[in-house]
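Wed. Picked up where I left off yesterday with ULK4 kinase. The coffee machine is broken again, so keeping this brief.
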Amino acid sequence: QIMKQVPVRFDLKTLHIPTYSAEKLSSMKDMDWNDFLQRVCSLLDSTEKSTGAARSKLNLLYYLSTVAVHKEVASRLISSQLFPVLIQQLRAAANWDIRAKVARVIGLLALHTSELGENVPVSEAIILLTELIRENFRNSKLKQCLLPALGELLYLIASEEEKRKHPRECRVVPLAAYTVLMRCLREGVRLFHC
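Structure written out below (tokens, as returned):
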């Protein structure tokens, strides 16, 4: 069963970056784009552990969720230095709300990207999501947050492989990812983006 997503809202006042629209982001020159990405990555990468810092990260992730639904922006973001930072946050964030929102952003990027660069560490994201689901298999709320991102990444890889002329050049997808996905589906996990 797939549950309807709750609309995402972010607070403009507490966002520490300019809130460009998806249209503005897609038409940015390289220098402005790189400045914007640098600010986003440094905010996400911040190691401050206060409640305010966690709230600030969540707000930034809500903003990224709203722009990640734009195809050009999603393609630029997934191929940028932001994607490895998202993977790192998924791995290391102490706050599970942050991890859940990071998974949502990853899932949205995978869903809306129109092309996947060769150097995007998608396999690393799949391995990490698989591990997190396995480690938290009894926690159905976490599974509900992590499974959509895993499914979107698997679908993105499959779609990319279909487009290629040389099937040997494929990305590595661990068998465990399919096993975890099938096990969750057999148990009837309700899926939704957090």
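Quick read: The chain has a mean pLDDT of 83.
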